Amino acid sequence: MVGGGNDAFIGAIHRIAANMDGLIEFSCGALSINPEIAVASGKLLFLPDDRNYLTYDEMIKKEKALPEDKRMDFMTIVTPNFAHFAPAMMALDNGFNVVIEKPMTFTLQEAKELKKKVDDTGLLLCLTHTYSGYPMVKQARQMVKNGDFGKVRKIVVEYPQGWLSRLSEREGNAQAAWRTDPKKSGKSGSMGDIGTHASHLAEYISGLKITKLCADLNIVVEGRALDDDGSVLLRFDNGAPGVLIASQIAAGEENALKIKLYGEKGGLEWAQHEPNTLIVKWLDHPTQILRAGVNYTSHLSGFATHNCRTPGGHPEGYLEAFGNIYRNFALTLSARMEGDEPTKEMLDFPQVDEGIRGMAFIDTVVTSNQSDKKWTEFVV
Amino acid sequence: MVGGGNDAFIGAIHRIAANMDGLIEFSCGALSINPEIAVASGKLLFLPDDRNYLTYDEMIKKEKALPEDKRMDFMTIVTPNFAHFAPAMMALDNGFNVVIEKPMTFTLQEAKELKKKVDDTGLLLCLTHTYSGYPMVKQARQMVKNGDFGKVRKIVVEYPQGWLSRLSEREGNAQAAWRTDPKKSGKSGSMGDIGTHASHLAEYISGLKITKLCADLNIVVEGRALDDDGSVLLRFDNGAPGVLIASQIAAGEENALKIKLYGEKGGLEWAQHEPNTLIVKWLDHPTQILRAGVNYTSHLSGFATHNCRTPGGHPEGYLEAFGNIYRNFALTLSARMEGDEPTKEMLDFPQVDEGIRGMAFIDTVVTSNQSDKKWTEFVV
Amino acid sequence: MVGGGNDAFIGAIHRIAANMDGLIEFSCGALSINPEIAVASGKLLFLPDDRNYLTYDEMIKKEKALPEDKRMDFMTIVTPNFAHFAPAMMALDNGFNVVIEKPMTFTLQEAKELKKKVDDTGLLLCLTHTYSGYPMVKQARQMVKNGDFGKVRKIVVEYPQGWLSRLSEREGNAQAAWRTDPKKSGKSGSMGDIGTHASHLAEYISGLKITKLCADLNIVVEGRALDDDGSVLLRFDNGAPGVLIASQIAAGEENALKIKLYGEKGGLEWAQHEPNTLIVKWLDHPTQILRAGVNYTSHLSGFATHNCRTPGGHPEGYLEAFGNIYRNFALTLSARMEGDEPTKEMLDFPQVDEGIRGMAFIDTVVTSNQSDKKWTEFVV
Amino acid sequence: MVGGGNDAFIGAIHRIAANMDGLIEFSCGALSINPEIAVASGKLLFLPDDRNYLTYDEMIKKEKALPEDKRMDFMTIVTPNFAHFAPAMMALDNGFNVVIEKPMTFTLQEAKELKKKVDDTGLLLCLTHTYSGYPMVKQARQMVKNGDFGKVRKIVVEYPQGWLSRLSEREGNAQAAWRTDPKKSGKSGSMGDIGTHASHLAEYISGLKITKLCADLNIVVEGRALDDDGSVLLRFDNGAPGVLIASQIAAGEENALKIKLYGEKGGLEWAQHEPNTLIVKWLDHPTQILRAGVNYTSHLSGFATHNCRTPGGHPEGYLEAFGNIYRNFALTLSARMEGDEPTKEMLDFPQVDEGIRGMAFIDTVVTSNQSDKKWTEFVV
User: Fold this and answer.
1) Which of A84, C103, C257, D97 is 20–30 Å from B280 (CA)?
2) Number of other CB atoms surrounding residue B372 within 10 Å
3) D263 touching C, CB under 8 A?
């Protein structure tokens, strides 16, 4: 693991998620750019001293020097956005698969280079778009794919949070500090952080691609350098319109990602706050409540059930969704290592192409926001 | 009442609403443009034969000829949009107050003429933006006004319906037929019908005015002449951004008007499907559920309680909200007739200025939709 | 109307409900036992002076003396429980149909005499068990009747309110005063007031009858004379077990009547706070959300749609449910007066037999509560 | 781990839960009474061959023979109820702490012996009443303890499941088979399995003890030997009444444990299906929604936040609640091993006394059910 020392948020999440199914062992790390924190964090997490590294450079080199069955199988990068690309490239160059936090890189250009490297090496790159790991999100995707709703006609995805309602970056909140800093976070604040989750979710569930958009980004809290709120009109490649809203100044909201999709025959609604529920609406029939893990007669897709650990009524949450990303990545890796073909269910985790689209999304919303024209083409 | 014969939808609603509190008596009507339906409908509703008129023209003239204490006190117009203006003008010209269904007129120009007439005559014009009649909508408005949330920072209002998911206008659905017909409905379909409700609600609750917008209107169902779906980026006069979504092809949705507003210290959420509940979110405190009719110690505004008929836990609905519009209009009328000053609570019903803004909203979204520019000024 | 002066709660509700559909005209009253309040209330409600009576005795006699087409068609009794029987008997004796608030009488014996009188006169007695007027309650009843859930296996009905959490009867709350007074209310407090609603709802929806029960009644607030809380184990006539909970000291609850019923194949859940929704659960299929007024293909029973005034998504509430009781009563009355056979849908309002069961329920829970035996037979 | 082979349900849950926080290592097991399944399961779970035992007897003896820092620190027992006591006693006798699935034993007598052994050895016994591991359950307990609601006046706890709606024990469902078998499960079916969870939750949150009860247990599905449904009237040691409902024939329900508690000033409601939410109702103020992990100003107890792994809006579920039991147990164990005093938060996991009360609950409901008397004393 690169980054994720004991002063960080998402590193601990990654460790619980990776650890959940007993498929992955946390074996080494370069846990902080600050050597003292790196060492202390590794100790706290029971890393052996000789694999508790100071830098990713050291880690990659020393791990590579280990016998094949002793070295790490993949490397997770949980640093701020600006520090994704270099360790990822180096890891791939040295034969290590990688797991990266989203957004994948600092710039679209970096993303494209990473894509080329992945293609060239044949290694795996897993991007932790957590929300696509929820079973009922997978169920939603399969229902759309099966044509249950007919042609998709409209998508509304919203992601309100309230945690940047104040200028917390000046009040000692470390995560707020880097997320709102263009040098660490990139061109966009809220759109880069959570807008990319929302656009990924919309494309993942619908199976469609955004082709053009019209963005209105705002810096609501005075003194901030990056957008902390934004709304975007979307057009998808089947012609369907959409709306994406991402805001981090929605005071009183926690992490309220929600999507509604409408087709010719019905629609669906999924909210991260109640992730085990998928609301399915029909033009001519009563709304149905599909629930994760329940043994219906022929209602849940294998993609959903593959990602449940417990029977219905035992709520699984964010950590399990995160765990599903790792689990599918690990199962794919294991299958490949043993020369087997991974199943479609195993392969269902976000990869480098999704990472490129995320970076292109950031580029396009920023360009659109600066433009007086209504529509800006979404080009990758 | 003009229009609202037994083949119509909203006429019956108006009658129940007006009748609810025993303040208004349904005394005469010209209930249909079709004389047979007019007569038959009047009979069914127990209108005396001599006040069961064939045309509004006849009604206005004959009523005016009655002694003052026998004639109607006001005239309700529930015809399709294109037939609002003429009867309204004639009624006002002859000294009758009017109640009109929204949108107020067919064109913005008509709206302005009506406004002038209202100003000149000093009569009342009540516009039935039903949703502003709900007690918890009034509560929301008062809380914003009191500054409970600090400066308003973002507003999201959405109004999805599914009833035009098919080409119902060709399948004998009379309401669908006129609503989708530009000659009867006006320049816009879904934005005219429900977008105006949504924009009214946003301005009513926030106390702000839209200053510019960026509209994306769509004709989703092939063969239709007017927009059946649309999304609009908004900017309010305090600089706050917003989003308005109105769709009638949201298959599986009923009448799901919902608004979320965020300020510096917290926000609120109200949904028409659970109208007695106002969700109030705080940056630093737990979310609160305010409920209509409940005797809290100092939590409900007098504007809310004035519009409740029952104690908490006895759900009031759409008809009661509609009734509140009529009730406040009637109380204002009575007060004026008796030379009293109506209270602020009585005066709290939509009037001609709101009607003008509705028509300007329609004009602006249509103009914006046709434009390549991102923003179009909202001018009245 | 007998009772319901301007110092009372339920009288105003009755008037709105009766008035809602334009089928019933409020024409006369003896609105209070206090002559001054009676007269003042009648004036306020626009009763003509000569039909604004001082006592029900006077009203019945003078109305009977009017020509048949001028006199009242029925008499509504909204006095406290102890004052139901005498006016009801006198009305029936003089040929007037009656509408009575629940519980029907003060004692079971009175209820039986009333039943005999109704049978002898052939007149109608309508009992306002409001909650059975909701469309989705009727839908629930029909689904059970149709066998959609197979044999009923368990029923849980709960009715928590918080309004008697304090000794409000000593703080000037007039309704609290008579409801907690055994001389006015009868043998039981909360079980008589709301337990009877709950038991009626359970029997109405299930189509089953309670055959024995085990009651635990409590006086929770010190200084009170009647139960303000109670829980009852039930056994129904098909052998199914059940539970009924009625409490008026459930601090923070409004009027949260809720029923859950389970059968072999699935179950249902209905809550008065969201009355337009019926949740239908299935053993092998996803839960369905049935909604009042929605045009499904073959999902809503005619008994439900007959009791809706608006299309789906326009919430109807308590007043409309109350209105449905009056509307069906009035339609039945009109049909009979015109020599027609009322339809099954019209006849679907609570009548004298339900009133007897309510009084027997009160008797049985009080007897059971005083007994050391587990089960007490429910005898009528 | 004793039991929990790859043909079992709860064993896998225990492993994920124990593993979640990196505090506990799964090091040895006697995973099945069937030697082939035991060995195969251990292999699948990467147990080293020499610690993949055939019986708990072998495991305890061989582990004890290992050096202190190599042997297991505690032993988890996840066998059916009848096979809890013997391994637990032997483990304690040999100096191993134990974790046991609920109900703790087969009989109350066994429970008492276990208690004596725990007291004598000074070792820890952790009982996995999972639901008490949820942060918002702990929050509820603390609020009651703090007197936020005043004296507790009524408790309603219900636990409906639908999974035994059919005679699944004859259709190859292994868990159904032993749960409904009196030789493996004990005197009671649904009350033993889930009624004990419900009674534990009620006592845990309220801080009160049941003193007497009146039980109505039913065998609803024909051909079954143990109760699959039951309702119980309760009396707590402060005089407050309560109701407990546990049913496994509630068709269409998943695992819908829910508790409502009312005090003088307000009440609370918690449902396992939305475990991160605690609804707090007030007599004089709006209902509040408390949410796990949210940084309110002074609203969440340290007992709640200690048991959250993620910030608000990242739903934690059943596995995390289970993990909290293990985590607190492990932290207590570690503290003790290092000679430290565990904090109150660490010590907050169910122990042997709760296990005894669970067995006494089973005894009492079965006795009460067979009795004609209304009340049966709850004696331990």
Assistant:
1) C257
2) 8
3) yes
- Residue A94, strand partner residues: none
Check D314 against A45: CB less than 8 A apart. Answer: no
What is the DSSP pairing of strand B152-160 with strand B210-218? unpaired
For all residues of chain B together, what is the average pLDDT?
96
Per-residue pLDDT tens for A332-379? Answer: 999 999 999 999 999 999 999 999 999 999 999 999 999 999 999 999
- Interior CA angle at A75 toward A71 and A76, to 5°? 145
Residues C369, C192: contact at Cβ < 8 Å? no
Distance from CA of A151 to the nearest CA of B (A): 11
> Cβ(A332)–Cβ(A97) under 8 Å?
no
Its sign, for the CA torsion C35, C37, C38, C42, is: positive
The answer on pLDDT for D16 being more than 80 is yes
Nearest by CB to A285, from C284, C287, C299: name it.
Answer: C299
Let me know the angle formed at the C-alpha of D64 by D60 and D69, rounded to the nearest 5 degrees: 125
CB spacing of A13 vs D310 below 8 angstroms: yes
* Contacts with D300 from chain B: Cβ below 8 Å: none
Interface check for A286 against chain C (CB to CB < 8 A): the answer is: yes
> For chain D, give me the number of helices (H) and strands (E)?
13, 12
How far apart are the CA of B226 and the nearest CA of chain A, in angstroms?
A: 16
Which residue in B336, B335, B322 sits closest to B99, CA to CA? Answer: B322
What's the CA gap between D149 and D153, in Å, rounded? 10
Three-state secondary-structure class, residue D324: helix
Residue from D280, C7, C13, C181 nearest B311 by CA: C13
Instruction: With beta carbons under 8 A apart, name residues in chain C contacting D229.
Output: 153-154, 241
Give the number of residues written for chain C: 380
Backbone phi, psi, residue C21, to 5°: -105, 10
- Angstrom CA distances, D37 to D5, D59, D208, stand at 7, 16, 43
Tokens of A309: 């650990």
Q: Do C92 and C121 meet the contact criterion of CB atoms below 8 Å apart?
A: yes
Number of C-alpha atoms within 13 angstroms, CB side, residue B81?
A: 30
Query: Can you read off the two tokens belonging to residue A243?
Result: 């709306």
Measure in Å the smallest separation between the Cα of A372 and chain D Cα atoms: 36
CB nearest C313 (choices: B12, B20, B254): B254
What single-letter DSSP state applies at residue B169? G
The amino acid occupying position B22 is G
Instruction: Tell me how many degrees the CA angle A215-A221-A222 measures, rounded to the nearest 5.
Output: 110
* Confidence class for position C264, pLDDT limits 50, 70, 90: very high
User: Could you tell me the CA-to-CA distances from B118 to B68, B86, B334 in Å, in that order?
Assistant: 20, 14, 18
User: Token pair of A330, please?
Assistant: 């690990």
pLDDT above 80 (res B8) = no
**Alpha carbon distance C139, C156 (integer Å):** 18
Digit-coded pLDDT (tens) for C167-197: 999 988 989 999 999 999 999 999 999 999 9
Taking the C-alpha atoms of residue D202 and residue D197, their distance in angstroms, rounded to an integer, is 9
Question: Tokens 């004890």 appear where?
Answer: D64
* Cis amide prior to A103 (ω within 30 degrees): yes
Cβ contact A165:A206 at 8 Å: no
Secondary structure of A77-97 in HEC code, one letter for each residue: ECCCHHHCHHHHHHHHHCCCE
**B153 to chain A: closest CA residue:** A220
E strand residue ranges, C55-122:
74-77, 97-100
Question: Does the complex come out with an ipTM higher than 0.90?
Answer: yes
- C-alpha distances in angstroms, B263 versus A256, B147, B199, B203? 17, 9, 18, 15
pLDDT band at A10; cut points 50, 70, 90: confident
Residue of C nearest to D371 (CA): C374
Q: Among B331, B355, B326, B357, which residue's Cα sits nearest to residue B344?
A: B331
